[in-house]
Amino acid sequence: MAPRSASRTAARGRGRGGEGAAQPAAAPEPAARGAPAPEEARNDGPLGCIREIAGCAEAMAKMDKTAELPPRVGRIFNKHKDVLMSSLLPPIMEAWSTAWSDPALRVPLLQVFNACVRRLELLVAMEDAADSFLACLACFGGFCFGLGTMMAGHMVPAVATATRVKTAKLAVDTQLLHALARLLAAGAAAEAAEARRVAARPSNPAFAGYYVDPTPIAAMLAQCSTIIVGFVEGAIGPDVAALRAVGLHDAIAESGVLSWMARNAVTRLRVAADLDAALTAGAAGAGAAAAAGRAGGSGGSSVRGEVRVHRNGMAKQARSSVSFLCELWFKASMAAKLAAAQQSGSAASAAAAAAYVPPYAGWLVPHIAWLELVLSGGCVQHLMLQHLVAQVAAADGGGGYGLAPQVALPAQLTDQDEAAAATLQAKWHDYPCDGWVGTSRPGAGAQFLFVDTIFRVLDMWTMGRPPPPPPLQPPLAAAPAGAAGGGAAVASASGSEPQWPPGAPWQARNIFTLLGSGGHSGLLQRPGVPLRGMQGLLRRLVEVCLASLVPGLRRHQQQRGGSAAAAQLYTLATTQPTATGKAFPARGSLVCASRAVLLAFSNRCLKAQERQRLWLQKQQQQQQQGGAAPAVCTVDPEPHGDIRALWRPLVRVAHACVDAAVVTGMDLGECGYGHIGSSEDADADTKPAMYNEAVESLRVIERLMSPCGGLQLPRLPPRHGGLFTLLPEPPLCLAMPLGAGYVPALERLLRAMYRTQGSKRDGCLKSVGGLGLFASHFRSFEPAWAGVFAYGQPMEVASLIATSAMILRNRLMAAVEGVADMATDPQPGEAEVALASLKLALPGEMAMRRRLIRGPNLLQGMLAWLADSVAPPSGGGPQAGAAAAAAAPSGWAAADGAAAGLVPGGLWWQRRWRHAMAAPGNSNDGGGGAAAFDWGVPQPALQSLALCSFTLKHWFCLLARSSRNLLIYAVRSVEIGKGITHMPSVLPTRANKACCCMPKDAASQHNDDLHHVGVQTRTALGAACTVFQATVLIVHAHLQCKEFAEAARRLAASSADAAAAQAAAAAADAAAEAWKQLLIDPQQGHMLSYMQIAVELIAVGPPQDVKPEHAAWASCALMYLTAAFPAEAAAALFSAPITMPTEAGDEDLGLPPGMIFKVPVDTALRSRYYKLVPAGKSEAARLCFGMVARVLAGAGIEAKDLEMLKAGFPAITGCTVGQHTDALWARRVAALLPPLALAGELVGMTTDMCSNTGCVAMVGDSAAGVVLKRCSGRCGGVASYCCVECQRAHWNGGHKEVCGKN
Q: Does Iron show up as a keyword for this record (predicted)?
């Protein structure tokens, strides 16, 4: 018998017709020597050939397992091999169609194929079976094409469904798929053995054919994959239900044929590489021998160059396998989208999804679980992972994580037109249904890496859950439960923080509801690879994707010209080309980058969850055994919650999203959605009219940028979160996001999303989302913003704060109140239509906005943080604050807090004034301005306090302006609900009255998503409480500046150098005036008018929604305002009585109950304060209210009034800030806050705002980049504007009379 290698080579040669094949001398004669010529075979006709093959069924059934094919069977197979191997020709396909439709042929044909499969499984392992192997291989190849095409439903003419179902039933009953899986395994092992034999004797002439063609076993394995694909395609085709009924799906899952196909593609890469390497070495040796022979006078030829035929063949097969598996996932994802829409209960959503997804999604919905199960196989996941590594390594030239280049999957490339590949915006109908998959459309141009499969792989893994963890095995390495950097991810993943706000846009999107859940069925899994390796790979992918995006940005920028061409794009400035020059098409790159960051973050969160679960499990085990619970986590030393490495990729992707919107002219507030459509349409998950790269990426970026479900800025370490305990340097977990540029990226994204007033985001279309990103960031001050204020770049943080205040007023509050301009009194009924549409579009959106307005929010949280930082310990006296802060870190100038009730460092902002008076002409700042002056305050606290003053200015002004409208709106609603109105033009219609009345059921009364008078009242008064708290603080800041100015003037009268003291006094007066203008200037807040409206609502509002703290804070603020500004208070409030219904207990005020009176503001407020705060009905409180009445009557203030003010009016109880009720909190905090002008110097950004109170402009990428231009008229430049439109509006709104310029 011939050696195995020679036999296989002969078989391989005869499989190609025998031409040009090296035939060893000892090889047996071909079994088909007496076979008829090809012309004779064709004369029989294709159907006759198939009939003759079917006649071999009985003979093959009787074969012994160790015997070769019967001679007759071998002759028939070899006789018709040309027909079998040409199965895709129309006449032959027609013959196959006829044969499968004939029951008399179908059964024996399937018996023959079954026997061939099992025979090949034996033959590949036999040392000497060349003839039988060749004959079976010819039959097997023909059947793979004929049967696979029929089962996939691609045969022409088509085969009836009943025929395909019966054939599938026969395949299931005979366990054909299990046999194919075994054949794949046996073939791979035989191929590896063949490679070893070639490596042992590469110069053997028997292997000459291997230099130009694949091995016969390789051809067999490729054909095996073909028929597996045919069965799987049939299982997801239109006849899926009938085929599943006969058990085809179960057979595919149980046999694991998809996993074996994927494993075969991966493992045989090394075999192909070894085979090519051996042949290359053999060729080099033969060439050297030939050269020596020629030198000795003998002739000869040799094979030269590197052999790659086997690697190229395997690369093609691997690409085919990857593409098919990705296509399977795409179909499963389409079906999952349709299923989610059907389960939502919304007919509009289901109809929109049905119109959006392809038809096959409908018949695949019941079979999603099966699809997700077969795609979760370990080999399938490993093939996908290798494909991702190959694509990334081909672009960045990086490593393959231990895989040698010759055994790694080759990169998939595609030829595309460069212009089409760089298109970031196009019409939807130009591309398939998912909007961007299909970027590999062929065309003349450059080669690009294939991006479609990458997106689908990421999409699948994003939905999948991690593989099951190994069982808990003690002993385990010890590690702290709260490892560095892990708090953010753990909190987000474990659900310890509520997923607030309810109107967050990602909650309406299927991708996020299924994130990490195991897909629609819960069976989908991610690859089980080390976390750090996967994170590194995903970060590399992000860089490659962003580099691939650059050509698209440049192309669109050049096409648009104008402002787009002049825009400074972050991505263009910070992104380098790929190391190898290979890249993805620009279209789809940003989408892939955003998904990669989402997957990396999800991996971290899920790993942190698992770590926490294991720790709890260990804890329970020890408790059950009677031992003490572990004090630390003892499951994994790696801090799986560490998300520090993800901040930079997230920032870059967020900037790239805005860049893509800029160059394509897309408004991220609209996201490509038109204004046409009913409220029912808004409830559907529809798609915009145009595909846009930024729009497709935004929903992922929005999720990742939000603390609710995304990356959270880490909190400050325990015991270092207060103002006096801040560390000199930021913790590493906080330094990473700040150093990565998270703050400016967030501001740029917010401005891009909320720039347009009246956009779809204002209307909260579900697919666009509302103000969830903004609300989730600014719902509190701690834990995130305390660290950002202390350690962020001051100008970046100040710019973000200014932007947030604009969004608060122009977007969030405008939708709640119906109008934004404080000069307009809103009328009830104006916003009803918009509010009804809003509730349909995104339930919970209005509740989210109202809760943010009334608190907690950034301003309220900042005041609480400051109050808690300076609060005395429990039981401490007035000086306890100073004693508590005496142990503060070095850097605080304790002497500055010598004043009674102040903490160390108090009044530090006066140091430059005092220094100027003590040493005239020496600023002690080295020419560096305020930032270089020695303020006696540590740098983190210094910039925190400067940013607090900056925030106080911006948020107070805009919150006061807009919440005034809320108060007016609530008062009018109360009047309409009671059937009364003071304006003849506003008639209390039945619809208005029903909207304004209080509902009867308790659930509706407490539902902030509704629009009744109770919701309006508690929203308006909640915002008013925050305004009142800030008012108290501003009054103290004003008085402390005035006190210094008076002391400086006294010093000037008795000092030889009066000029320096007078200059210091003037500077202090200017600072005091700036604080005062925040309170009484109509352009700022006009708190005296604000107070009158708030008291009216407290007096007439629904009793259940007017709380004690509302009356307490209003009383406190009224006393502060009247004591600090008596003349202004008397002028504004004395002639502004309030219409109030009297109640029992008002007799003490001389008001009989049960009647309606017009009473002064102080009387109305005193009445409600005494009723709501019974403990506050004291003699001291009566003295305080008496002071207010006296001042409003024009009698002025007395010295004792100022003393009560400095003491914080302790008689007024019920005023709580933070965790303490100390009346001196505001005085202590005000002593630390720098004046507004100094705060602007310290942060590097002016605190001035656009003088147009109706300004809604958010031009540019940051507030710091907006240059305010001062008015050049006779007003002296007191007014400043951000744009010409605001100047024009302010001029027509009254500045013309003030300025006097024609």
A: no
Instruction: Give pLDDT, residue 485.
Output: 36
Please state the φ and ψ torsions of residue 922, each to the nearest 5 degrees. -120, 110
Continuous segment of H or E residues that includes residue 1270: strand 1269-1270
Name the β-bridge partners of 624. none
If one compares 842 and 773, the residue with the highest pLDDT of the two is 773
What's this model's pTM, rounded to 2 decimal places?
0.87
Residue-wise pLDDT tens digits, 205-250: 767 777 777 888 888 898 999 999 999 999 999 999 999 999 999 9
Which ranges constitute the DSSP H helices of 1101-1211?
1108-1124, 1126-1133, 1161-1172, 1179-1192, 1199-1206
3-state secondary structure of 414: strand
Q: Which two tokens stand for residue 827?
A: 């009328």
pLDDT at 563 exceeding the cut of 80: no
For residues 600 and 644, the answer to whether their CB atoms sit within 8 Å is no
Closest CA to 529 of 388, 370, 398, 373: 388
What residues pair up with 525 in beta bridges, in sequence order? 465
Alpha carbons within 13 A on the beta-carbon side of 1146: 20
- Give the whole-angstrom CA distance, residue 1294 versus residue 482: 59
Stretch (H or E) spanning 447: strand 446-449
Report the SS3 class of residue 1139: strand
pLDDT tens-digit readout, 1093-1126? 999 999 989 989 999 999 999 999 999 999 999 9
1270 phi/psi in degrees, rounded to 5: -80, 150
What residue has token string 């960045």?
Answer: 396
Please give the radius of gyration of the chain, using alpha carbons only, rounded to the nearest integer: 40
User: Residue 906 gets which letter from DSSP?
Assistant: T
Burial class (CB in 10 A: 0-12, 13-18, 19+), 739: middle
Q: Are 316 and 410 in contact (CB under 8 A)?
A: no
pLDDT at position 87 is 62
CA distance 1207 to 1180: 13
Which of 749, 750, 831, 735 lies closest to 791 in space, CA to CA? Answer: 735
CA distances from 981 to 451, 555, 964 (A): 64, 60, 19
pLDDT band per the 50, 70, 90 thresholds, residue 991? low
Residue with structure tokens 């008795």? 1054
Is 336 strand, coil or helix?
A: helix
Task: Note whether 734 and 644 are within 8 A (CB).
Answer: no
Which amino acid, one-letter code, is at 74? G
Q: What is the pLDDT of residue 77?
A: 83
